[in-house]
Amino acid sequence: MRPYLPLLLVVSSLAGCAARTQVQPDSSTAVRPPSTVAPPQQAAAPVVSTTEQDALPLDLEPVYFELDSTTLRPEFQDTLLQLAEAMRRHPDSRVSISGHTCELGTTEYNLALGQRRAAVVKDYLRRLGVAPARIATLSFGEERPLSSTELAKNRRAELNVSAGAHSTRGAE
């Protein structure tokens, strides 16, 4: 979704910036300006869905973890609070949380660690009022790295929100 976010913002701001020309009356014409002028449109918030009825205004970042840790870092609590609030406004929405790890450790250990990371995020969302039935967890362990050189980027939980028939990824 990240590569398309700037494009969405540009398109939405261009749509809101369409120039309106008014005919200025001069001495030779008697043209009156329209009696009602639409108010200017504001730039739209980033959305994670492509239809207006399913729009969830979110900018979902992965939740990163320290090496061999399942402790939720304070700087990611705002992201989860934003998600919980959006899910309260959209009762049909669901979230899938995928846990990831870096390549250090065995495959079995990393799958278990990824699952624990996803469970920590699920528990935090549950405490913020999101029903557990609306949250799914999955672990990929070390199988889907974001970076082969920056291992810290691989220690994460990704949030995949779905609203109705559409779903989007918070980060690729």
Can you give keywords for this protein?
elongated, 3 helices, 17% strand, disordered C terminus, 60s Ribosomal Protein L30, Chain: A, 5-stranded mixed β-sheet, alpha+beta, 27% helix, 172 residues
Describe this structure in words.
The chain contains 3 helices and 5 strands; from the N terminus they run αβαβαβββ. Strands 1, 2, 3, 4 and 5 form a 5-stranded mixed β-sheet that branches. The chain is α+β, with helices and mostly antiparallel strands and 172 residues long. The protein has helices at 5-16, 77-89, 107-127; strands spanning 63-64, 93-100, 135-141, 156-163, 166-169.
Number of strands: 5
Distance between the termini: 7 Å
Average pLDDT across residues?
Answer: 75
Largest sheet: 5 strands, mixed
Low-confidence stretches: 4-54, 165-172
CATH architecture: 2-Layer Sandwich
Going by CATH, what is the homologous superfamily? Answer: OmpA-like domain
Q: Find the structural class using helix and strand composition.
A: alpha+beta
Domain module tally: 1
Q: What coarse outline follows from CA principal-axis ratios?
A: elongated
Instruction: Enumerate how many helices there are, as a single number.
Output: 3
